[in-house]
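Entry for the shared binder. Reason: the reviewer on the internal report wants the predicted structure included alongside the sequence.
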Amino acid sequence: MIKTEDLDLKCINTIRTLSMDAVQAANSGHPGTAMAMAPVVYSLWNRFLRFDPEDPIWPDRDRFVLSIGHASMLIYSMLHLSGIKAVNAQYERLGELSVKLEDIKRFRQLDSKCPGHPEYRWTSGIETTTGPLGQGVATSVGMSIAGRWMARYFNRPDFEMFNYDVYALCGDGCMMEGISGEAASLAGHLKLSNLCWIYDNNKITIEGNTAWAFSEDVATRFIGYGWNVTRVGDANDLEMLERAFKTFKNTTDRPTLIIVDSHIAYGSPNKQDTHAAHGEPLGEEEIRLTKRNYGWPEDAKFMVPEEVRGHFREGISKRGHALREAWMKKFNDYQSKYPELADQLDKMQHRRLPDGWDKDLSTFPADPKGVAGRDASAKVLNAIAKRVPWLIGGSADLTPSTKTRLTFEGAGDLTSENGGGRNLHFGIREHAMGAVLNGLALSKIRPYGSGFLIFSDYSRPAIRLGAIMEIPVIYIFTHDSIGVGEDGPTHQPVEQLASLRAIPGLITLRPADANEVIEAWRLIMKLRHEPAALILTRQALPTLDRSRYAPASGVEKGAYVLADAADGKPDVLLLATGSEVSLCVEAYEKLKTDGIKARVVSMPSWELFEQQNQDYKDTVLPPGVTARVAVEQASTFGWARYVGSTGHVIGMKTFGASAPLKELVKKFGFTPDHAIAAAKEQLKLARRDV
């Protein structure tokens, strides 16, 4: 019989050798960190992690985030050795391994379940997509907040439905990225005691020793954030690792940082840690020497001893399966005693909406003075949130300006004392806010975050990852144009709309009036696999008379004919989004009195319009009508797709200026008269070309 210590070491060396062999076969990747951290992850997974390999989406499972995504072979090895089963997009368990040995042999190859960095939705058992350093640990904060929120909302004295912990493995790169500081500060403030970061303190980055650029005292920094900090002096010391994880489990008033000192050891004493940790295979000879050092068969490749599989079955598999079975039995009883809560829990986990979620939405009456986009959204958001209990969010310190506070009775603030509040206060931390929102969405909360459109730049890396992961995060960006006025070019967004539209999978909506805001929200709430950015004005917009113009329900198609020539055969098209739509309507009415047949097309979402079939798109933008004018208080970039090479775009070709709005619209040409002149010029060009 193999001694436990020997079996532990054999499991750890299996992780290490799989990592070496996979990286060598791919001739690409990072084996060093996976080798050094193998004891840490082995100890966590096989001794502590509450995770059932048979059901990797069990709602109360512990979460493990590999923030150092370049060490992806570490988690692929664990998924394979633990026997994690695959789940498809319909939440069906497929009965086959999430990561087969063949996938590991095809590490970093096309269609392998083991891509270069861990990808959510692609490989079951991966909790979030990581790679850009710092994003993983920041996302883990959202998962932790979600766990606390769900515990407060769903747990009852006799039914603890949620009590999971979140672990994130990070490195020096994560610690240097600013997002980790933002996220750690927020986590400490909220006293997230279900959160544990494990810091691989190996003092190596791509360029070399961290001493060249990083000399701060990380422990003192995190103590300052309000974290509990403990240290393991040797990553290979399983006893000390176990003690550190128990310290975390026993800490109930703050998050925990475990600093683990590691050193990457190879067969050759002259091997440079830097290259193997960051992007270079070891080479066949070095692998043989290292395996000899481990007491491993030197020529064996991708070897997994049967006793190693058995040890994981007796560890994480047996423990996790028993915990999950007990939870499912408890959930059945919960359904009987708390049927409404059980139904909500089920709907939330499957990203479905409650019945009647939109019953309180009502249209806004026509009003030439109108209402600001942000104010209309505030009413709609509150009406929906009352009916969707797991719709929660906040802003990066701008809630009074973005109008995103939930004001109905019982909404409350999410604080360290009240983990069940619906209003989140992210502080001035846009980058961390985006990652936290991703973490909330990955935990099946429906989150929203808000800020000024200009500051979407600070959130963009997290927005991009949310789009890659296909999770329905909601962004509410107000102060959407030069309408910010006196705040000047530093606060006036110009290129941000184009930047957001450039992100594949992100739905960007810029509604033209209060009723388009309603329809935008109606569409956003139905999204299950796409994040959305709702772009809103600070200034009031006329609420269009829908008895004269087309209904706002056209928003669902991304673009629609708002006002048309009497015979439906326009000579010139006026295209616009947001606040510029009413400007085009004014121009349309004046052109009509001049006997010019114009059509106004409201285009709140390019992405949704591009999803329509060609017949519909040609109905809205007839190919034969080449006289086209687009109007948008943003960069002209991208509009050529819709106005053609001969069309005219009234947009921003420079940054803005500091002045009252009325002066700015004249300076930059956002007036009905300018649109009319452009339309008439377009007609001349079109007739000349006939």
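Summary line for the report: The longest helix spans residues 306-337.
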